[in-house]
């Protein structure tokens, strides 16, 4: 069974249809890249998979390990193993990163019928992960993402990804706002999490990110559909010729 | 002057005062003051919405009537009170318990008083005919009808005196417990006097014994903080969900004195807390912080009057309200800077978080500035929880109520953080936590 299966998905925001029949099949161990120009519906897809309000699914299905994802609350999807790394991670003043991560991890474990993780065990785990991502301890004591630089916010997303050990990671424009060094650190973090059981969907506007996170499959999106799929060489082709050729195809 | 026809309930209370008079301690001058105070109350009756200060808290509509005095607690009532007190006991404090309007010596801790600390029940002070102390206990302004009524009817309370230079190691904890099973009123009045160079922490709690129903708690606290003294004050209102709490505190500060006061209201059906703080000595400093956590049909009103009477004083007010269901939160904060009070630094910030479409929060900040060399400001905001934050948190696995709880804790956190004592801050956090868990 495939891990994530998007079938003929149609989505409206207010009166406008953004996705018109999008299909995508992601198997364990694979890294998929979704590329496309602004407004092609890439972020809409990531939001609908995660369960954000304000999107009306008018047709199609999203199955996660064969289960209907659209019937689940966002927190249930997270507990099942769906993770969205946000393009713009929010700042939550007054809620420390420690507290937030501990509460979130325990909520996921509780939803799966697992025992809660104790504070000392949690501390140990977070410290290890933070160290591997070069995240200083004092960042964890601050409000979630409060006063973090763009790179720190993205690293915090990857920290959470490492901590929650999801089955599918959707990375929404992970490269936006990052300089080349920050991008490399973030990409290293993501690569370290690649495994035969885990799949990743990397949404990006630019080919640059794919030099660091090398995909197995590349999809080109235009006007709410996947218009072409291929191997990693497709990304390079796009870099050469741009998206214009697909605008007409869509 | 308007002649107001007496309502049925007004007449009933008039009779109640006549009946109660013999039970009220204090003879001679005190009895006269009580009568005057009652007459002042009777002239206006229960405040209603056409009186500006009571626009949002119309007691005539919400409370309808003042109930007769509660009987003195019997052994069973004291037993229920003891159980309630135990449930909310705070470690390391000196506890002073008032049950149904009477000081309860057996539930209180009057042993081994530290040097410089004097504690006596108000009734004893009045019965002993201590003129100067009694006069202080009844020195409040009777132009406010509910304060006047409290003065007329107060049956007991505690009178606490702290001698110059005393630093109390143990916080004082006044616990107000209602434990009568029939609806009734209790009126208490307490006096706290801090001498020069003293340092005191006072906690006040309002609790209900099991089975206490629809009671009315009326308290009046009068505090004088001497020169160079510091008072930390934490007030927690966890009254029964059908109870009324109409209380006031009148606090004055001497030169270079410091007041840090925090209030949290999560209980009671209708509550009104009238806090009057006067900077009467130069260089004094005031921090006033408050939190309302209310739901259902609760109504909680904090009305603050911050009076800058002299130069070089600073005040800060932070108020946070979290309002769910059809509850109604009111914050009225008035800052007066008198003509002489140059170099005053006064700031007030009030924010309300509405958790439902039917919740209501009224924030009314007012500045009246009569001096020209001052720094004053106020701000007020009202809003809902940020959906983008909630989505982020839910996408990380937190169920909606848990995500809301973390955001609510953060929202009230700034006010709770102001509590100086770590232990008491934890008590306030635990109180807020109980409210959050009850709604989850």
TrEMBL record, chain A:
PROSITE patterns: ABC_TRANSPORTER_1, ABC_TRANSPORTER_2. GO terms for molecular function: ATP binding; ATP hydrolysis activity. The keyword Cell cycle does not apply. The keyword Nucleotide-binding applies. Gene3D superfamilies: P-loop containing nucleotide triphosphate hydrolases. Pfam families: ABC_tran (PF00005). Keywords: ATP-binding, Nucleotide-binding. It comes from the Bacteria. Residues 4-248 form the ABC transporter domain. CDD domains: ABC_FeS_Assembly. Involved in beta-(1-->2)glucan export. Transmembrane domains (TMD) form a pore in the inner membrane and the ATP-binding domain (NBD) is responsible for energy generation. PANTHER family: ABC TRANSPORTER I FAMILY MEMBER 6, CHLOROPLASTIC. Belongs to the ABC transporter superfamily. Ycf16 family. This is Fe-S cluster assembly ATP-binding protein. It comes from Bradyrhizobium macuxiense.
Automatic annotation (TrEMBL), chain B:
Residues 184-411 form the SUF system FeS cluster assembly SufBD core domain. Residues 30-174 form the SUF system FeS cluster assembly SufBD N-terminal domain. GO terms for biological process: iron-sulfur cluster assembly. SUPFAM superfamilies: Stabilizer of iron transporter SufD (SSF101960). Belongs to the iron-sulfur cluster assembly SufBD family. This is Iron-regulated ABC transporter permease protein SufD. It comes from Bradyrhizobium macuxiense.
